[in-house]
Amino acid sequence: IALIGAFYLFTLVLGYGAAAIVGPDRIMSAAGKENAAAPLLAFELGGVVLLGVISAVAFATILAVVAGLTITASASFAHDIYGSVIKRGKASEADQVRVSRVAAVTLGVLGIVLGILANGQNVAFLVALAFAIAAAANLPTILFSLYWKRFNTRGALWSIYGGLGLTLILIIFSPAVSGKATSMLPGSDFAWFPLENPGIVAIPIAFLLGIVGTLTAPKDRGTPERNAEMEVRSLTGIGAEKAVAH
C-alpha cells in the first residue's frame, strides 16, 4: 500500500512538473498527448540522453510486466483451474504445459484486443483502474486476514468475488468505456455509473461484503483430528506436494 501511495505521489510530481516546465499546450499537441508528459519533461531536463534513459526504462518495464503477467496467468490457469479443478489433480505434466501455452496465446490475443480498444487513453488512468480492481478484490481479504481473527472463508469469498465483480461492472458502465468523446467506445453510450474510477464505491462495498459474509457464516471449528493433522503439516511440511521437473 505504501509503495502504491509513493507511486501516485511521484506521478503528481511528474505531472505538475511537466505542466510547469513543458507547458500544457505543448503536451496536448504531442503525439501521445498526456502520455507524452514524462518523455517531454525528460527531454527538457536532460536532453536526448535523459529522454533515451526514460524511454528505455519504460520499454523494459512494459516487457517485464507483460511477460510476468502472461507467465503467471497461464501457469495459474494450467495448474490451478485445469489441473486441480477440471482434471481434479489427474492432469499430466504434458497436458498442463500444453494448456499453459494455449492460455498464454489466448491471453496475449485478449490483451492486444483490449490494447486496441484503449488506444489513446491516459495510461495513468488505466493504471488507476487496475489498482481499483486489485484493491477491491484483494485489500479487504488481506487486511481482515491480518487483523480480524473471526474472518473466515465465506467472508474472503464474498469480498474477493463481490469486489471484483462489482468493480468490473461499474467500469463497464462508466464514462471510461462509453458516453464520452474520450471513452474507449466513443460511438456508444450505455454508461449509467457517473464516476470514471469506481474505487471509491467498490472498495468500501468489498469491505462490507467481507464483514457480512463473515458474520453470517455458520460456525465450523472442524474436528480435533483434522486440526491436529493440519498443524503437523504446517509445521513439518509432511504431505506437501513434491517438486516437479520443468
Automatic annotation (TrEMBL):
Membrane spanning stretches: 49-78, 99-118, 124-148, 155-177, 197-217
Recorded topology in the membrane: Multi-pass membrane protein
One GO process term, biological-process aspect: plasma membrane acetate transport
Entry annotated with the keyword Transmembrane: yes
One Pfam family named in its UniProt record: SSF
Cell compartments where the protein resides: Cell membrane
GO CC annotation: plasma membrane
Record has Iron as a keyword: no
Single annotated GO MF: acetate transmembrane transporter activity
Annotated keywords: Cell membrane, Membrane, Symport, Transmembrane, Transmembrane helix, Transport
Database matches in InterPro entries: Na/Glc_symporter_sf, Na/solute_symporter, Sodium:Solute_Symporter
Similarity comment: family membership: Belongs to the sodium:solute symporter (SSF) (TC 2.A.21) family.
Listed name of the protein: Acetate permease
Source organism of this protein record: Gordonia otitidis (strain DSM 44809 / CCUG 52243 / JCM 12355 / NBRC 100426 / IFM 10032)
